[in-house]
Amino acid sequence: MPGKTVVILGAGVGGLVVANRLRRLLNKEHRVVLVDRSPIFTFAPSFPWVMLGQRKVAGVSRDLRGLERKGIEFKAAEITGLDFDNKRVQAQDGEELSYDYLVVSLGVDYSSEEVPGLNHAWTFYHADGSEGLREELPKLSGGRVAVCVTSLPYRCPPAPYEGAMLLEHYFRKRKIRGDVELHFYTPEQIPLKATGKEIGERVLGLLGERDIGFTGGVSLKSVNHEKGRLNFADGSDAGFDMLIATPVHRLPNVLKGSALVNGGDWVPVDRETLTTAAPDVYAIGDATIITLANGTQLPKAGVFAHGEAEVVARNIAAEIAGSDPIWAFGGQGSCFMETGGGRGSYITGHFFAEPDPDVTMRSPSRFWHWAKVGFERNWLWRWF
Ligand SMILES: Cc1cc2nc3c(=O)[nH]c(=O)nc-3n(C[C@H](O)[C@H](O)[C@H](O)COP(=O)(O)OP(=O)(O)OC[C@H]3O[C@@H](n4cnc5c(N)ncnc54)[C@H](O)[C@@H]3O)c2cc1C
Question: Which of 28, 84, 114, 276 has an alpha carbon 20 to 30 Å from 262's alpha carbon atom?
């Protein structure tokens, strides 16, 4: 049997898992090629800790070129074109990569142009922003801090709540909590809509216990930094001295207008096999859209990118070996949510359950904080 080539676009959470799993499952005559514009992977769940100076970006980053020693070919390149008819992808440096199987795990592009003024907001949604906040927060001595989910969908729905609760504890430790008003804004009526009303109310309870204000059902329309005002689409507004916001999340540029998208905002996939409209092309992770039984969407989270990656890798390996691809993604996922003071909570469930996802939330404890620390260590060791 001639060797096959599997090309994986994006060396984030989903791409790394596919590459590692396939390399272990396939014989050496088959190639596993991983492509990313950046040769450095950074673990996003650690960004809120970076913001507070509890981690350095370098400590939660890994060099993807080290994967070569495992037999995974890594190419640092911007992907600029996709040619599904001829089974090729184009890179910015002019090189063309041919594939037998293609896995697209390109995540999201961040944008701010939809919301005037958003480009001057602080964010811990990327490494640079988290480092910027680490330098800026110690300068703050009081005022109104707004934590804002700008628009839906956004990755890791609990992360902004986690950030707000960690900030609350940080201000208390600095003994300036009495001088800081913390307020949370989001387009969702209640927190974490996809997990159901009960969990939303428990998160509201956690915010309330910490005296963090909550306004739901508001989409950010513009930011006036001179006057310190947030303007929302429904005509309401609010003041701020420091704004910490999620960026607008968009489909990666290279996928726009491609046959995978079919006019929509994200890549539709078969929810069990992650197959797409193009033959031998799979898509996983944040770039995809999976609609749940109750009409909401599977949240964009690393845990789902990971689970989908395991399924896709096993099915591709089975097909190459001449067996039936029998693995199916079941929609299970769990996520840690730090609540401050060395404590955390844990949200876990079956998102494909009908009529609604079946999700539970564990009460905050030191155990779940240390479980997240263990998860971080394990992730950065296991896939590199
Ligand atoms: C602050 C924060 C905290 C989070 N915490 C959690 C958590 O606790 N649990 C959890 O499950 N999830 C968490 N997430 C979400 C998680 O990081 C994402 O859902 C996950 O990374 C998605 O994986 P992916 O493979 O789809 O995309 P990514 O991991 O984003 O990977 C996409 C890759 O594609 C590359 N790329 C894009 N376009 C191109 C191109 N044209 N050419 C070349 N390369 C390209 C990018 O450089 C990137 O490396 C968090 C996210 C943030 C921001």
Answer: 114
